[in-house]
């Protein structure tokens, strides 16, 4: 078998943390006197914490001082972490461990490429941290997806060329980042949203061993 690099996004691919981001952002918006909808939350997938807050404040027609901005970021993350701290293995999305184990058993490079600064905490909570050879997260990058920086760094950390890497992503920005990095993009979610990806599956239960072998040996 050939060796490829498999880079996993975290939120929405390995675990469904979007619901916790939503609750924490909604409470923050409400405390500032405006609402925050699930539709707006969709648009924050793959978007860094700073950029998310900027968008939310713009949606609420609200401006704040730099100091207040930092305060709001901390407030949101503190509440988000309260949800994260209650997480366990039961929140891993279906068949993610099967695919991870298959790749590891077949000596493939496995890395995390996430915008989240909480990535390691989350992987620890769901007991998946040891599955990843390398982790590149929001603490390691300066440019947010759709910039390819996070995935290019992940490829480098695995010592595998970008064109030999495969990315699992649930966000449009992430799929675009993978495409720009010259990697194979696999969208996890709806075809209506992720149509720019090379392959699209609703979830990992649809990803067969045959498909993975084909990707590895291509
Ligand atoms: C992921 C999520 C985003 C989130 C970002 C930063 O990309 O999809 O919704 O804003 O990570 O997460 P953090 O845990 O650092 O606030
Ligand atoms: Mg995601």
Describe what you observe in this structure.
There is one protein chain. The protein has 218 residues and is an alpha/beta fold. The protein has nine helices and six strands. It has helices at residues 18-31, 38-42, 49-59, 66-84, 96-105, 119-125, 149-158, 172-180, 209-217, and strands at residues 5-8, 109-113, 134-136, 165-169, 184-188, 199-201. Strands 3-2-1-4-5-6 form a six-stranded parallel sheet, sandwiched between helices. Strand 2 (109-113), helix 6 and strand 3 (134-136) form a beta-alpha-beta unit. Helix 1 packs across helix 4. The chain binds 6-O-phosphono-alpha-D-glucopyranose (G6P) and magnesium ion (MG). The site of 6-O-phosphono-alpha-D-glucopyranose (G6P) has 16 residues, from helix 3. 6-O-phosphono-alpha-D-glucopyranose (G6P) binds at residues 11-12, 21, 44-49, 52, 77, 115-118, 138.
Query: What is Rg?
Result: 17 Å
> What is the overall silhouette?
globular
Separation of the first and last Cα atoms? 10 Å
**What small-molecule ligands were found?**
6-O-phosphono-alpha-D-glucopyranose, magnesium ion
Strand order in the largest sheet: 3-2-1-4-5-6
Low-confidence stretches: none
Tell me what portion of residues adopts beta-strand conformation: 5-15%
Structural class by helix and strand composition = alpha/beta
Number of strands: 6
Q: Encode the helix/strand succession as letters.
A: EHHHHHEHEHEHEEH
By DSSP (H or I, 4+ residues per run), the number of helices equals 9
Q: How would you state the average pLDDT, rounded?
A: 97
Main sheet attributes: strand count, strand direction, barrel closure: 6 strands, parallel
Relative helix content: 40-55%
């Amino acid at each position: 078998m050939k060796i490829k690099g498999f880079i996993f996004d975290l939120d929405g691919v390995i675990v469904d943390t979007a619901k916790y981001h939503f609750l924490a952002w909604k409470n923050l918006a409400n405390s500032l006197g405006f609402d925050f909808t699930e539709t707006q939350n969709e648009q924050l997938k793959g978007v860094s914490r700073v950029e998310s807050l900027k968008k939310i404040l713009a949606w609420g027609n609200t401006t704040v001082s730099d100091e207040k901005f930092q305060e709001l970021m901390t407030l949101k993350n503190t509440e988000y972490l309260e949800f994260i701290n209650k997480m366990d293995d039961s929140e891993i999305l279906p068949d993610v461990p099967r695919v991870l184990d298959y790749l590891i058993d077949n000596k493939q490079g496995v890395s995390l490429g996430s915008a989240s600064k909480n990535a390691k905490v989350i992987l620890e909570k769901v007991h998946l941290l040891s599955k990843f050879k390398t982790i590149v997260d929001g603490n390691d990058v300066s440019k947010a997806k759709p910039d390819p920086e996070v995935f290019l760094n992940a490829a480098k950390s695995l010592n595998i060329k970008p064109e030999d890497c495969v990315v699992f992503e649930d966000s449009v920005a992430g799929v675009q980042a993978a495409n720009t990095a010259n990697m194979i993009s696999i969208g996890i979610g709806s075809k209506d949203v992720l149509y720019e990806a090379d392959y699209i599956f609703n979830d990992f239960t649809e990803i067969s061993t045959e498909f993975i072998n084909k990707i590895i040996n291509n």
